[in-house]
Amino acid sequence: MADGTVMIQGAPGSVANSSFRRFARRRSTIAFLMTLPLILVIGGLVAWPAGYAIYLSMLNRRMTQFIGLTNFEILLESDSFRMVIFQSVFFAVTAVILKALIGFWLAHMLHHLPTKGQRKWRGMLLVPWVIPPALSTLGWWWMFDPSYSSINWLLAIFAVPSVPWLGEPWWARISVIIVNVWYGAPFFMIMYLAALKSVPEQLYEAAAIDGATSSQRLRYVTLPMMRNIISITVLFSLIVTFANYDIVRVLTNGGPRDLTHVFASYAFQVGILAGNIPRGAAVSLFMFPILGVIAFFVLRGINRRNREEA
Amino acid sequence: MSSTSAPQAHPRGIFHKAGSLRAERRWALWSAYISLVVAAVIMLAPPVYMLLTSIKTSAEIADLSGNPWWVRAPTLENYLALINNPMFRGFFWNSVKVTVAVVSISMVISVLAAFALGRMRFWGSQVLATGVFLTYLVPDTLLFIPLYQIVGGLGLLDNAWGLVLVYPTLTVPFCTWIMIGYFASIPKELDEAALIDGANWLQMLTRIFIPVALPGIIAATIFAFTVSWAAFVYPTAFITSPSEMPMTIGVVSQLIRGDTFAWGQLMAGALLAALPPVIVYAFLMDYYIAGLTAGATKG
Within 13 Å of residue B183, how many CA atoms lie on the same side as its CB? Predict the structure, then answer.
């Protein structure tokens, strides 16, 4: 593309050529200078720390000696870390599937409403996404409190026995997922609603003329048109959920018996609280390959979408 | 609501075949309202319950006999206690200080970079634009341990200015990304006209691009504001003394003490800390949503 603009602007004659070249050089210099702060932020605060993390993870606890991959080996051999891997995958996959389904359902329901009423409902339903998650999780923590739980009070009305929300491992896992779904489903709803609005109305009319039922319209018109946005949102949310920290930290802090730790909270416990920085770096680096694979697919989805729109 | 259901009712008798379609529509509308009401109750229950708890006295909270979803003797004492607490006010000012600095830094960096990457194509600009997006996908929980070492090496641990240094990693990539999208939607004729009138690049940016892309700038600013206000991983890792804490971590770590929690005060603190993003959202909802969806629909 850069070549194209040079050709057009350089066309008038060779007289202007040398001054134009100076101009182009000046332009690229200016452009570079304008991008420099961004390059410094990305290079200095993302790329370099990422490389530094790899180096850190290969040191011994006191950071005096290079010990290769020993930290990774020790982690893989420990039962508690295997539990962390299981819990992270279980948490991220379950939460993302639920968020995607609930978000899709809500977006669909909102889309049925007349446009005037949509704003109000959309405004209410997005509230969980707006409150900083660390703070809304405090509210959930209080609602899950063993002796004062207001959720159990509501359940008692329907004669449901009280639930040990944060006291029992599987319930604690479910609680963490509930809070994450509550926080993240509105985001999916907004993304899907934007995508639903971009599906041309003619397609539905054509489908209706062909006698399609509402489930067929969903299956053959809506879903294919939204495929890209669905995959981008799901993959993006998978990254964010996988790397989640605040909810686990506030709600369970890894307990009971370290069974609800995810990569981020375990890395924090090992690296910062217990002071074993190299091993903490190794824990968080375990996220890297998974995130890399997901990021690859996100990028592919976005490029495909750009090509479709072009 | 009533205006939509009224015209559906009467033509039923005349158009027998259309009746099924109308019934289907009405059924769809009813199921939509029912699911939305259920969803809204669930989505709003936690903040409402936080609000209810925050206006109760400690005695009422401890009393297990009554309905916890009701307030018998509303009081503002929890809020007053927090507002009169110098430590809590300190959290607030730290948050304001850090957020204002981070938002201005990120907006300057990302508007300049987005303009250069989107309009002044140069060698490697495409690769860099992709790199910006990839950076956005790197979560903070992957970087906080090496950054802990780096910030520690600079002597900025346990210092609010250390947060100003690292927060741009959360804000700059996404802001740049959505600004590239907004700048790309500005027609080329505008910058050609400006070039013919003899404007230089900086004038082009300040006189044309920034005013035309103002909605995008507002959306990006809101994003940067909410992210730096809500940031949790970095302050938890880097800040240990209460005098340097921003609100999120201050409320979570300092208002929880011992085994008997002051639940009312804790909830009041959490709501006060959540208030600025909620206010911004209430007044600028459309920009907020535009920023949210821009990443996927523009990019």
Answer: 26
